[in-house]
Amino acid sequence: MLTRPWFFCYGFRIDTPGAVMVVLRSFVIALSAAMLLGAAEPSAAARAAFVRGESALARGRWDDAATAYREALADTPGYPSALNGLGSVLFRKGQVQEALTLFRDAAKADPGFKMAWFNLGYAARKTGDAATAAQAYERYTELEPGDADGFYGLGESYRQLGQKDKAIPAYQAYIAREQRKGEQVWVRKATEHLKAMGAEPLAVATAPASATPSAAPAAESVTSNPALAASRIRDGDALMKERRYREAAFAFLDASHADGGHVEALFKLGNALAVLGYYGQAVAQWERATALTKDAAIQQSAKENIDRARAKMVQAGVSPQAAGQAPGSGPVADTTRALARRAYEQGVQRIASKDFSGALTSLTQSIQLEPMLTVAFVARGSANIGLRRYAEAAADYQYALELEPGSASPLYGLAESFRAMGRTLEARDLYERYAASSSADVRPQLQEESRQKAARLR
């Protein structure tokens, strides 16, 4: 039996907004529609005001946030992120119609602004405008096809409109994508709606390839290595004592991969994520640990941690589900996550323009903001390859594989790195693995190139 000390929770930082990680499935994204359609490019002063607004919003200081967002808009009218931020504040203050207008303006200013479309969908539902909500959720799910929440909102909107032919596939898409254990109550509700409309959830085998996997692989898919798990847990414990929380999270993640049923590894991974402010991810790990143990003390400690984390999430306004609301609810601030996404997208754009040094800076910022964002590590690996820093690139791709073992993009990048470093046998194996992969992020053109490169290395 595990001894008690390890499952006491580490202190939550009250100054850190929680962020729920969503793993993006695609590696290369298109240039922002805002760049193509001329959305307002914020000045340095507007950006600074916006950041102050995000910080205030994350701490529940709504009036300060509104003032900062208005400063940003006064300096740069039409600034999409500030419009969305101000809308989030007004929504929380009960000014739903005003918020609706701001979300609509933000989406119009930047048609690729995912959060604005999501928030527009929810605000429209609150006002009973299911038609607008459906249109907004349609756009959101186009931009973020792996996110389950958008499909639930879409299904609800079409059901309210009486459009069964559209509500059914939306609910089916939600169920196919929903992997979070704590959200299974909404899976049951979606299933009930489907049955009421004479339909059933899709079979697992026909679930869309774009479905986002859970952050950690299922225990049965992992080869058990208890000795490695124990070693990495010791590493994580030492790193936690040194307050190197991000590195500790990776150590505990390694341990959970080495032994998928290791309760201590999962519990401590939750602790590390919570200290970093990733409360949603922490809750998911504690719930997994709880499901794998019958130890009442551990279960009680996990419950206390989960309750505390959910309270922080509600306080920060970043997780509607933490307040018991259905998926697709909002608006969500997710300030840390949003800033990480922006930095990631900027990094990818800089790679496209061959500004590899600038890309490295942006992608490092993204990783610092959201240290479990797989695609940021993949993209930073590409930036490092562009700078001929092959060892650093390999390290980034290996981290990406630790975070998402089933993904394909890191395999190709790691193969390229190893080939450049003269590690031909390892490179050949990785090219062959990429060529044989059926992962959703695999690209047929690169598969053919991988086959050719593997053959040349024989």
UniProtKB/TrEMBL annotation:
UniProt keyword list: Repeat, TPR repeat
Protein name: Tetratricopeptide repeat protein
Residue spans of the TPR repeats: 80-113, 114-147, 148-181, 374-407
A UniProt-annotated Pfam family: TPR_16
The keyword Electron transport appears for this protein: no
Region (Disordered): 436-458
Highest taxon of source: Bacteria
